[in-house]
Structures are given as structure tokens and as C-alpha cells.
Amino acid sequence: MSDKIKIGPGKLKVFAMMIHESNKVICDSQGDHSQEHWNEAPGYNHQSATLTVRALFENPNLTPADLHDIWVDGKKADGWTYGETKDRDKKTHPSIIPYDKLSSLEKYKDHLVRDTVMTYINFIGREKYVLVDEDS
Length: 136
Hints:
The chain has one domain (about 5-70, about 105-130). It is built from 4 helices and 4 strands. The chain has helices spanning about 10-30, 45-60, 65-75, 105-125, and strands at about 5, 80, 90-95, 130. The protein has a two-stranded parallel ribbon with strand order 1-4. A two-stranded parallel sheet has the order 2-3. α1 (about 10-30) crosses α2 (about 45-60) and α1 packs antiparallel against α4. The chain starts with a strand and ends in a 5-residue tail after the last strand.
């Protein structure tokens, strides 16, 4: 295990920031300016992105649909429900629906998340890293 690359909370957070900021760019390009930069985003955004990244490191075979399901489950666990508009106070979000009902753009975001993290996983090799609970 000592020769494996250790992926701890700090590295997972870097990937979470990357996918969060990538998602923000896509949202902004479509006129949706509801997403803040990572440093200004609420904690639940950090938790959601980190959970998604960790899930991919634990199981690189997850599909974009699987990642969406993980995101939906996280939102629901935090009290969010489907709503026609995103509303933080009411905890509603229009993407709390089955993956196959998402728009092409929303599906693209899930693909981007997966592809971003998988690029690194494939670069270092799936067998060459281990998740750890603390940064070294």
C-alpha cells in the first residue's frame, strides 16, 4: 500500500472544486447565474461535489446516470424536493428527476463530471491509488 498514491480529503476537495467550477461555467454560459464560485458556495455544494468525486474514486465504473442518482439521493437526504425552479429557501430543484428525463444539457454536466475525474483516474491507473481518511 505504501507505493500507492494516497487520495485523501484534500485531493478529493481539489477535484470537487474542479467539477463545481466546470459546472458553474456551463450554467453561466446558458444564462443561469445561480451557481456561486466554490469559495462563495454554500456548504451543501461542497458536500455534494465531494461525495460525487469520492463515489467515482471508489467505483470508477459509475455511469453519468449513477452520478445523477447519487446527487439526487444527497439532495433528498438534505430535504430538497423537485420544483420547477431552483429555490434554496424552499429547497426545490428542477433536476430532482430521473436521469432519462433530464435535458441534454443536464446530462452533459453529469458526463463532464465523470470524464473530468476519470481522466485523472485513468492517468494514474485504477490500481495505483488508495483512498485514505487523512491527508499525508
